[in-house]
Specification:
Blueprint (H helix, E strand, L loop, with lengths): L1 H11 L6 H28 L11 H9 L2 H22 L4 H4 L5 H5 L5 H10 L1 H26 L4 H4 L2 H12 L12 H45 L3 H4 L3 H8 L3 E5 L4 E3 L7 E7 L2 E4 L5 E4 L4 E2 L1 H6 L6 E4 L3 E7 H10 L1 H27 L1
Antiparallel strand pairs: 1-8, 2-7, 3-6, 3-8, 4-5, 4-7
The protein binds adenosine-3',5'-cyclic-monophosphate.
Adenosine-3',5'-cyclic-monophosphate (CMP) binds next to α14 and α16.
């Protein structure tokens, strides 16, 4: 709906389109607006059902929703319709429809990482502020230097500090429109330095945001794993401190049904714990074993440093906790009880597989 509505608004701004198509586009905008209005009314009506408002009266819940971010964005999305109605009534123009571009805000509500971005900016506000201050210092110094060096030859462009600052911003952000260019040797040197500083400042900002994102994602992943780990019995007996060490090293992976997780003969770089779902071990002799919630697999390749002994595929949607080989060896040296439990099970499986092979050979 959003895509259709936005495309209609964008195309309606092209004056050269035939009148009939423009009529259709107007109709589309109207339909989309009416549907958004219905959506807004419906969401307002069901607001008391939202769990965080269940302590409040229905009217209060609706009011609280109306002034929340989704509520305000919903309201903004229907406001253009009112303007559109006025626009047509008063000046018969499409100007008002341009405000329908505000619908684009609704897209923000569907962006999954927007909350993370807000947290990252809030967590990293000190380094971000430092980079911005650095940006500003370089900008003002360069603009002043260019103003002093260039104002005689180019009084129009560099005669004032704001004019020189425009050039400095365009150069520092490495945009370089080329509308204002230094002509003196000194000005060119300042320009070169400014371009290099621009790349450095942008790289700094990228670094700050990227590490912030990675750290935030790590924290979220930790919470996700912490929830899953309780379902795996092998971890149940461990104390909180030991468990938290392991949780920091596990990663969650979601697999749909019938996906091969481990292939026979591949090198083993990790082992897996099933926190929900089911996996099927396809042994080389054609037999298969099913592993349910709480079981683990992929340990034999890590313990024996051999290629995978069997292929394993999910039978239904499955959540796995992955432990990479390097982390497995580290944990095994810290927590002998865990390593022992994994080794005992691996030995049992190996004997079971050998038993099957000799049983088949006898037959
Ligand atoms: P790995 O050899 O790394 O990869 C295949 C995995 O299948 C193996 O580790 C075990 O975890 C698992 N596996 C092998 N044989 C059996 C068995 N008999 N029962 C359950 N799991 C098995």
């Amino acid at each position: 709906m959003l895509t259709i509505g936005l495309l209609a608004v964008i195309f309606l701004s092209i004056d050269e389109l035939p009148a009939q198509i423009r009529e259709w586009l107007r109709l589309v905008i109207w339909v989309v607006t009416v549907l958004f209005f219905l959506e807004y009314a419906m969401r307002l009506w069901v607001a008391p059902e939202i769990t965080r408002f269940d302590q409040q009266s229905p009217t209060m819940a609706r009011l609280r929703w109306a002034i929340s971010l989704p509520g305000l964005i919903g309201l903004l999305a229907i406001l253009p319709a009112v303007m559109l109605a006025w626009g047509y009534g008063i000046m018969r123009a499409d100007t008002a429809s341009v405000f329908c571009i505000l619908w684009v805000l609704k897209l923000g509500l569907h962006a999954p990482a927007l909350g993370t971005l807000a947290r990252v900016v809030s967590n990293e506000r000190a380094p971000i502020a430092s980079v911005l201050i650095l940006f500003f210092i370089v900008l003002v110094l360069a603009a002043t230097a260019a103003h002093i060096l260039e104002r005689v030859r180019q009084p129009e462009q560099f005669g004032s500090l704001p004019g020189a600052m425009w050039w400095a911003v365009v150069t520092l952000t490495t945009t370089g429109y080329g509308d204002v260019v230094p002509l003196t040797v000194g000005g060119k040197m300042i320009g070169s330095l400014l371009m290099i500083s621009g790349i450095t400042v942008l790289a700094l900002m990228t670094g700050v945001l990227a590490t912030g994102f990675a750290q935030e994602e790590r924290r979220r992943e930790y919470l996700r794993v912490w929830e899953q780990v309780a379902r795996v019995p092998i971890f149940a007996s461990l104390g909180v401190v030991t468990l938290s060490e392991i949780v920091g090293k596990l990663r969650t992976r979601y697999y749909p049904a019938r996906v091969t997780v481990v292939r026979r003969g591949d090198p083993g770089d990790s082992m897996f714990f099933i926190s929900s779902g089911e996996a099927e071990v396809r042994l080389p002799n054609g037999a298969s074993v099913r592993l349910g919630e709480g079981a683990f697999f992929g340990e034999m390749a890590l313990l024996e440093r051999h290629p995978r002994t069997a292929s394993i595929a999910t039978t239904r949607p499955t959540t796995l906790l992955v432990l990479y080989a390097s982390d497995f060896y580290e944990i095994a040296s810290h927590i002998p009880a865990l390593a022992e439990a994994v080794e005992v099970e691996a030995r049992r499986r190996r004997e079971e597989n050998l038993g099957r092979q000799t049983g088949e050979a006898k037959r």
